[in-house]
Amino acid sequence: MTMPLEGRTALITGASRGIGRATAIAMRRAGARVAVAARDHEALAKLVIDLGGPEVAVPIPCDVTAADQVSAAVDAAIETLGALDIVVNNAGGCRFTTAFETMRPSGWQSTIRLNVDSVMHVCQAVSGHLIERGSGSVINLASAVTIRSMKDMTHYVAAKAAVIGFTRSLALEWAAHGIRVNCISPGWTATDMTSVEMRNSERRKEIVAQVPLGRWASPEEMAAPAVFLASDAASYITGHNLVVDGGLTL
Ligand SMILES: NC(=O)c1ccc[n+]([C@@H]2O[C@H](COP(=O)([O-])OP(=O)(O)OC[C@H]3O[C@@H](n4cnc5c(N)ncnc54)[C@H](OP(=O)(O)O)[C@@H]3O)[C@@H](O)[C@H]2O)c1
Q1: Of 21, 36, 77, 97, which residue is most buried, by most CB within 10 angstroms?
Q2: Among 60, 191, 208, 211, which is best to mutate for testing ligand 1, by the most ligand atoms less than 8 A from CB?
Q3: Which domains are delineated in the chain?
């Protein structure tokens, strides 16, 4: 059987752990050579070894909120891998929760910078390359909270809703260039980001009770849909928000 991403190359942000790491592993297993970006140099170096070494994986330390670092990271990925076919904008997260009336503008802005500006920086940096090649698959990580919503997370919900709107709009603009742009909206996934909820047994049970499939997702269960969206099996899918939430939003 041929591997779905054989001969392809991918840049994955936020690949040092969680969903990004699982996506890098899944894409490599599917045949892609990968560039893995995040701030944690050591975790990236270890991941490259786990992926099979420098022939097939390249570590690219980078803070996705800094446009100049993103631009250098994209250039390094293209130079090392020869080209980019797949871009996964996965870096993101929610660093705090607070009632809206006590939200500091600085907290709001840092959440938008991490979840929205980062996607914009990466897409701008890679735009010339993808348009010139006339192909590509961009996958942005949004969240099921944009549908079901959640208290004390206005900043994060607004940021991820912006990612979905951005994805649809960019998909429309880039369709003529042969570039597909899609989103994945995860539900509750067991990673560092959700470790506070995971550690609290009452909260953990409360969450499971809300999920029709009756459990948390593993990071691998977000990585497999990313491989699908990157592959030719999804060649007619663009501007889509693939909700992967175990039925949470039903
Ligand atoms: N887990 C869930 O339940 C869930 C649900 C819905 C959506 N999501 C979304 O899915 C994505 C991945 O989440 P996750 O659960 O895997 O989170 P995670 O385990 O906390 O991992 C986040 C990743 O993003 C990287 N990152 C954070 N800030 C960065 C920055 N400024 N520059 C570069 N990289 C940065 C981190 O690496 P470094 O710290 O090394 O930089 C890490 O690799 C996020 O966009 C998140 O919002 C997650």
Answers
A1: 36
A2: 191
A3: 9-243 (3.40.50.720)
Average pLDDT of every residue of the chain: 98
Instruction: Judge contact between 134 and 143, C-beta under 8 A.
Output: no
**Is residue 68 within 8 Å of residue 45, measured between CB atoms?**
no
236 in catalytic set: no
DSSP 114: I
Residue of 19, 113, 185 to test ligand 1 pocket, by largest number of atoms within 8 Å of CB: 19
Residue 151 is given by DSSP the state T
Question: Token pair 């940021």 is at which residue?
Answer: 159
Distance CA 67, CA 101 (A): 30
pLDDT of 1 strictly over 70: no
**Is residue 2 scored above 90 in pLDDT?**
no
* Lookup: tokens for 171: 């998909």
